[in-house]
UniProtKB/TrEMBL annotation:
Record-linked SUPFAM superfamilies: DNase I-like
Gene3D superfamilies with a match to the protein in the record: Endonuclease/exonuclease/phosphatase
Molecular function GO terms recorded: catalytic activity
Gene source species: Rotaria socialis
Endonuclease/exonuclease/phosphatase domain mapped to chain residues: 28-114
InterPro entries the UniProt entry points to: Endo/exonu/phosph_ase_sf, Endo/exonuclease/phosphatase
Name this protein carries in UniProt: Endonuclease/exonuclease/phosphatase domain-containing protein
Length: 352
């Protein structure tokens, strides 16, 4: 399992595969008790509670575990198996509120892919890893012969361990961290292939400027623009549907209430209203120049001199962060403060 830092608390996310006729690893699931977690995978568990025709041992054990721990399930609305009308791919979580699933009838696997939309929010200060895969592949092609020669000289386990470390380090060196606000989801695979084909046709026309190559490039460009526009339209309509549902508009729009301010009718100085722009600017400039000017202390005052010397010494102190204060320490000090104030209040009560 991996832990991701999201708001308001961090969440554990993991995947699992339970072979048929076996029991799910509940000893691993119990480690997430009283924590925020999400576990997805192929459980091979069937039960009538999630629209299966029959029950099996794994399904009955999961139902019992959910009743004991109070956890919930993230269930698709359609069967996820091609071989039977059963939902065997789902998720377990501490709270299923806000999770949405959609079964996609695509692919050639014996399981349908499940698209999951989560209510998790990522902080604005978070970063994501962006990898330059062109440099990654180029470097691999340069050292391909070296690793091919090493595979015959090293032990199998030793080679795979070192090659895995090499790939991890290469991935780190070819990647950079960028703010999460700069993240843009990638295009679908068909649109990426269409864009590559359009670029190839453009280069082909630049090398050999014939009518056939020009018409081919123009036709591919029209198809690409139409497909991209259709994709953007679909995203826009999906966003509108999300906004119209319940109160989701406040997840996107931020309510800002402006204070009412009356119109400016002049500057009142000594019971005289000044309306000339130059005079108003000069008066305000003199005021704020004096307001933001450096404070002039009394050099003949010993207290002022002592405070100034202490202030100057603070500037030479190292910039060391303060130790974190636990919530228990704050609670203890607050109880002491309240108890002391209560004793003072009782001492001043009049006696009847």
């Amino acid at each position: 399992m991996v832990e991701i830092e999201i708001t308001p608390i961090s969440t554990l996310i993991g995947v699992v595969y339970v072979p048929p006729c076996t029991i799910p690893p509940f000893h691993l699931f119990t480690k997430c008790r009283n924590k925020s977690f999400c576990i997805f995978g192929d459980f091979n568990a069937k039960h009538v509670d999630w629209k299966c025709e029959v029950n099996n041992v794994s399904g009955s054990r999961i139902v019992s575990w959910l009743e004991e721990t109070g956890n919930e399930m993230i269930l698709p609305d359609k069967p996820t198996s091609r071989r039977s009308d059963a939902i065997i791919d789902f998720g377990l979580t501490h709270d299923a509120t806000g999770w949405h699933t959609e079964v996609l009838e695509e692919g050639t696997s014996d399981h349908f892919p499940v698209l999951i939309q989560s209510p998790l929010n990522i902080s604005d200060s978070a970063v994501f890893r962006k990898t330059n895969w062109n440099i990654f592949k180029f470097f691999l092609s340069c050292v391909y012969e070296y690793w091919l020669a090493r595979v015959y000289n090293y032990d199998e386990q030793f080679f795979f361990t070192h090659f895995s470390l090499f790939l991890q380090n290469l991935w780190d060196r070819c990647s950079c961290c960028k703010p999460i606000k700069q993240y843009r989801p990638s295009w679908p695979s068909y649109l990426v292939m269409l864009a590559k084909e359009m670029n190839r046709s453009r280069r082909r026309y630049r090398r050999n400027k014939t009518i056939f190559n020009l018409n081919n490039f123009i036709e591919l460009k029209k198809i690409f623009n139409a497909e991209r526009s259709e994709l953007m339209k679909h995203k826009y309509e999906k966003r509108l549907e999300l906004i119209k549902k319940d109160q989701n508009i406040w997840k996107i729009a931020t309510p800002i209430f402006h204070l009412y301010s009356p119109p400016f009718r002049g500057l009142n100085v000594n019971n005289t209203i000044i309306k000339e722009t130059a005079s108003i600017v000069e008066i305000l400039a003199n005021h704020y120049e004096k307001h933001f000017a450096e404070h002039q202390h009394d050099e003949n005052n010993i207290v002022h001199q002592k405070c100034i010397s202490i202030y100057e010494q603070l500037g030479y102190m190292p910039n060391i962060p303060l130790d974190k204060i636990s919530i228990n320490e704050v609670s203890i000090q607050l109880k002491k403060y309240l108890q002391r104030n209560l004793q003072i209040a009782l001492a001043h009560l009049p006696f009847y």
